[in-house]
Design goal:
Helix content: 25-40%
Distance between the termini: 71 Å
Strand order of the largest sheet: 1-2-3-4-5
Number of strands: 5
Number of helices: 4
Structural class: alpha+beta
Largest sheet: 5 strands, mixed
Oligomer: single chain
Shape: globular
Radius of gyration: 18 Å
Order of helices and strands: EHHEEEHEH
């Protein structure tokens, strides 16, 4: 098995893995092909991300996508591993670990301060790869899935006289 940067030729295989990976959002094939896949490839080409695939013979069996972000708190860039997907037939056989190790190696080469990963289902997997838990991840969706809009921000109190 080889781990290598993703290319445009990997789009269909990555989309199939993504469909199994995504639990919160359901990716659409048209938007993936026209917008998100090209954006991710461009981010990787511009060194703003790492987008790697695991290839067994001629078949894509996994991928990892990590976004590189400049930070103030860390004193440099942080690489956040956002997506790690492995074909069901390859799970438990080292494919995910190889992808994560490749992401870690690229973070070192790029001079990133750290690699972070938001997860709720795979914390034990990442602990085995020397990650430590440091924070809880909270999110606020910009596209509301509920019929009621979010409440307006609270008003500032009147200044004291």
């Amino acid at each position: 098995m080889t781990v290598r940067p993703a290319t445009t030729a990997d789009a269909d295989a990555v989309f199939l893995l993504l469909r199994d990976f995504a639990t919160t959002h359901r990716p659409g094939q048209e938007r993936f092909a026209a917008v998100t896949f090209p954006q991710v490839l461009r981010a990787a080409a511009e060194n703003r991300a790492e987008f790697l695939v695991a290839e067994q013979e001629t078949r894509i069996v996994g991928y990892a996508y990590a976004a590189r972000m400049p930070t103030l708190f860390a004193g440099g860039t942080v690489l956040e591993l956002l997506e790690l997907a492995v074909a069901p037939s390859r799970r438990g056989r080292g494919t995910g670990s190889r992808l994560v190790r490749a992401v870690q190696a690229r973070a070192r080469q790029a001079g990133d301060v750290e690699v972070t990963v938001p997860t709720r289902r795979a914390a034990d997997f990442y602990r085995r790869l020397d990650f430590t838990e440091t924070a809880a991840l909270l999110k606020w969706p910009t596209r509301s899935e509920s019929p009621t809009p979010p409440p307006p921000p609270p008003e500032s109190p009147a200044p004291a006289r």
